[in-house]
Design brief:
Structural class: alpha+beta
Strand content: 25-35%
Order of helices and strands: HEEEHEEHHEHHH
Number of strands: 6
Strand order of the largest sheet: 1-2-3-6-5-4
Shape: elongated
Helix content: 25-40%
């Protein structure tokens, strides 16, 4: 992924924030005629550090074994997992004058590394159970999976789980960093005024990264931002 220098945030806890908050990732690997891509849940594995560099960290994911993508995977396959954070359109109407052009603000984190396929049924079941519990805790309503474990056990034969050991990380935070603070503020307020609420997450991310009314570079502000 091409990452211009002014759209980089070096603090890897922010990279983790995108991965943890947006765990529906896209797994991509090389195919025979075209790249293979599958949307699937992917999370930093249990027992891994909760902060700091991501290199060396394991990601857990799973997909349907009937998917041709699963059948194309082998141990050691080099793969990319792409996590999409919040984003939103920027209309030139928020800029003070012409000429200007529309754009899109967004955050994305890509991690690359080697896959290890999980072939054992019990280990696969543990991945499914842990993933379900983690996602329920993060996004759900307190559902208790206890009564569904036997159901999980019946369907787990159709699940292909894997571990990806991260070798490199690419993170792009396009948050109007190249614009003056007053223009950034106009962009943020436009997002915050979105009646659908779709613009609120990217507005919040921009504010927490020091855009708009806050002074200082994104990295200076981000490094001291609590979350």
């Amino acid at each position: 992924m091409f990452v211009p220098s002014h759209y980089r945030i070096k603090d890897e806890d922010w990279h983790r924030r995108i991965i943890d908050g947006h765990p529906l990732a896209t797994l991509t690997t090389n195919g025979t005629t075209a790249p293979l891509a599958t949307r699937l849940p992917a999370l930093v594995a249990p027992g891994e550090p909760e902060s700091g560099p991501l290199a060396g960290t394991e990601i857990l994911g799973h997909l349907n074994r009937a998917n041709p993508h699963w059948k194309a995977l082998t141990d050691g396959t080099y793969a990319r997992l792409m996590f999409d954070g919040p984003g939103g359109f920027v209309t030139p109407a928020v800029y003070p004058g012409d000429p200007s052009a529309p754009t899109w603000n967004f955050a994305a984190v890509h991690v690359c590394g080697r896959l290890r396929l999980i072939r054992g049924r019990e280990e696969t079941l543990e991945v499914v159970r842990w993933t379900a519990a983690r996602l329920e805790d993060r996004f759900g309503a307190g559902w208790d999976q206890t009564s569904s474990v036997d159901y999980f056990r019946r369907i787990v034969h159709g699940v292909g789980a894997f571990r990806l050991t991260i070798e490199s990380v690419e993170a792009l935070f396009k948050l109007s960093q190249e614009k003056p603070a007053d223009v950034q503020e106009s962009v943020i307020r436009r997002y915050e005024a979105d009646p659908s609420g779709a613009g609120w997450p990217i507005a919040r991310l921009m504010r927490e990264a020091g855009m708009g009314g806050s002074a200082g570079s994104p990295d200076e502000t981000v490094s001291s931002c609590p979350f």
